Amino acid sequence: MPYHVTELYKHVMKKRLLVLVQAKKETKECLRSWGWLSSLTFVPSMYIFLLCPVCYVNYAMVTLCASTSTTHQRTPASNSRLMAAVAENTIDIAEPPVPATRRAFEANEIKDRISRNCDRKSLRNLAMVDRQWSEAALDVLWYEVTNLEDLLRPFGPVIPISSTREFQVTTFNSTFARERRRVVQITYELSELPTHRHWLRFRHLYAPRVRVLRFKLVDTPKTQSLVNILRQMHSFERLLPNLRVIHWDTLCGNGLLEPMFAFAHDDVQELNLTDTQEHCPAKSITCEAILTRMPRLTKLTLNVEPDVKYIPSLTSAMKGLPFLQSLTISPFSNMSEIVSCLSGLQNLKELHVLSRNQLIISSPFSLHNSSSPYFSALERITLSCTYQIASGFLCREIPSLMAIRVVTSIREQPSNVRSLLCTISASCPRVTQISLEIKHNAINLSALRAPLSPESALTLEVLSPILQRSSIRSFSVQHPLPFDVGLGEVKTIASSWPHLKSLSLACDPYLVEQPTSCKLGLDAFLPFIRYCPNIEELGLFINAKSSAIPSNEDIDALPLSFTKLQILSVGTSAIQYEEAIAQFLSFICTQGCVIKQGANWFEQSGQHFGESAEKWMEVDRLLRNLLAVRAWYERRYERKLVSEIRKVRETLYDQPK
């Protein structure tokens, strides 16, 4: 006998019947709210069939079709009769047609695209649309957390609580005196006591979505209070189980109780730790504890004050990170012990020794064990040191090294540049990228502009050791003086590196006011069209003021123009006759190529560029317009040619055979 839906749950649990529920039209809303009818369920002596999930108003239509007797014996015959009754009394409501626009907006890829282009306020509003949009919005909203208060937001607002503490102070002046002082302490607590339901909601809905934690310590007591709240609530499980990247700025100096370790676990893959304050013993403990708290790190950045007291803890931590692939560390004055430790890591592929404060390695490298493996997997390296010290680091063969970048802050002599290139050519058989840079502070410009002798300029002989490596794809060198090479030497360089993609030969010397003879003109670009078809960035210091513009015969003799060139760097080159130069460049460049001018060897730009920068900017503007016009005419000519070919074919087909 049929039962009303509102009495069904009570009757089924009392009689333990074999049931198939049927919902009438007026009771479908009641069925939707019943969580116990959400899926196919099996319990002793009871079956509940729900033929479809709660989706698009598609509800199961079922009928009570079993005997009310609790002693009903199940037999194959009775079961077959039951299933026949089920088939006869079950009615499926067809799924209503869904518009194409709605199906499009319900695609997960489109939802993700929309969510990733929304700000945080829009994401919060988007999370309240429906369940599917909420999933997409919350994934983006909680992917990266930059504030500890955001982690505590699901538990309620955080409020400050002030308390007064009295203590007695003894002063020894002319008279012995004691006085009592009061200190106001501020702590932070949740406005309401969190419940177990709040914690389960945070653990299942929000915590698994966090992948990146980016935090800068500003208020140490507040940070400590917020972390203590999280520590008191969470169990032995990971607080953020899917966290992979931690960016932590400024340490508290609490050793093992550092707030950063509240979120650390074995699956964290990247740690970026910055602390520019003075060293203390607790910070060394923190650095050493990285080994046990995050043992599977693959990328580690340590931008700490280069104090020698850090070295024992850092070497101890790095030795125990077998999965480490990339390391960025501040340049200590003596890096020998750290390098000896790192040279044995079998998975280390990138090593960057960089500093924000223009610090460099000042002591030569001295390796303790010359017979052990030496950076067997290293592929990329950056060193902040002089060229002489860099040569000492690269003295042994590094078989997999492909990219080398050396940043110096002093004036390097050509002999040092040649010695470094000789070492690279001998010890790095797979090298393809070399960058020799100069970084200065703009405050010391007056001292840097002291004149140099003409012998200090770089020549082709300086580059001759590395010209033997035909596999070079990127080469960049900065120097106070322009390159002392002519058109013939430029042809030699271009023909030696046929796979070249990027080249910069001291295009931005900062001693341009010193009288030097620049032998290169606008025709210096032409050899790279012939010998380097894949070049994408080219930087040369030229004299575009007095040199003649190449003739049309020289341009027509070339196989093609630049096909992939994107950036043409002229640095601080002199220039005159902007219109004629832009017209010449439009013949050898393709659409999309831009002119880059100015110097990048110091941190803060000034007015030392002179008038040449403005003139090169005008050339860039004219070049873009000329290339756009040429592209338009080429497309028009192509369409006209296709039309004429079509007419000729039609004429030939119409002629009688």
UniProtKB/TrEMBL annotation:
Q: Mind telling me which Gene3D superfamilies this protein's record contains?
A: Ribonuclease Inhibitor
Highest taxon in the source lineage:
Eukaryota
Q: What name appears for this protein in its UniProt entry?
A: F-box domain-containing protein
